[in-house]
Amino acid sequence: MRHVFQCPLRWSDMDAFGHVNNVVFLRYLEEARIDFMFRLAREAASPGAFTGGSVVARHEIDYLRPLVHRHRPVAIEIWVAKLGGASATVAYEVRDEETLFARASTVIVPYDLEKARPRRLTEEERTFLTRYCDDEAGSASAA
Predict the structure, then answer these.
(1) CB 78 within 8 A of CB 33
(2) Where do the domains of the chain lie, and which CATH numbers do they carry?
(3) DSSP state of 59
(4) Widest CA span of the chain, in angstroms?
(5) What InterPro entries does the record tag this protein with (predicted)?
């Protein structure tokens, strides 16, 4: 299953070449990831999910088509591509009905803010993330 986040575009997202700047894509992915992990997970799993924090260990983005400013949002589909004991890789597609603009992935590591070190996924976090495991690149379902 995939979660779909509708991300609004801002005029300031554009660069001198007339399309959304590559760095802005990271902000879009962050907005989708925050919605997924901190809103959806807490609503679906429990209020304690991901409250200890998490950090980004790696980003990877393939830019496929230029994205230009428009008034309708762009859809960011997010799902879990890999689940480990102390990390998860989330994958994304930035798209609309006609066009796939980018594919990306982020390795996230749960983090204990008080101890200032990585931690293992809790059982409730793992249960939530498992529901969004999707290794079929072509299938999408809104959550």
Answers:
(1) yes
(2) 3-131 (3.10.129.10)
(3) E
(4) 46
(5) 4-hydroxybenzoyl-CoA_TE, HotDog_dom_sf
| The token pair that represents 4 in the structure block | 């779909």
Q: Are 67 and 19 in contact (CB under 8 A)?
A: yes
**Structure tokens given for 43:** 């609503």
Burial of 31 (0-12, 13-18, 19+ CB in 10 A): middle
DSSP 68-81: ---SSPEEEEEEEE
Which pair of structure tokens corresponds to residue 56? 């980004």
pLDDT tens, position by position, 3-43: 999 999 999 999 999 999 999 999 999 999 999 988 888 77
Structure tokens at 65: 């088509």
Helix or strand run (H / E) with residue 44: helix 41-44
Report the 10 Å Cβ neighbour count for 138. 5
- pTM, 2 dp: 0.87
Token pair of 129, please? 């993330």
